[in-house]
Write a structure and sequence with these properties.
42% strand; alpha+beta; SH3 type barrels
């Protein structure tokens, strides 16, 4: 995924499915470097992780 698509997803009111290593995640923010994003797993756990945006996949 590229930075522009991450920005579009963040600004959208739609529920857009995104996965990281096959696991469904929410994107919390695009980080200042433009290459990483902070995400958390969909579900009850709110643990946040910083990942490379090129590893995010839109389903």
């Amino acid at each position: 995924m590229d930075a522009n698509r991450v920005r579009q997803i963040l600004s959208s009111s739609a529920d857009i499915a995104v996965t990281y290593n096959g696991t469904s995640v929410w994107i919390d923010q695009l980080n200042e470097d433009g290459r990483t994003a902070t995400v958390h797993l969909r579900g009850p756990l709110e643990e946040r992780t910083i990942v490379e945006i090129d590893e995010l996949k839109e389903v």
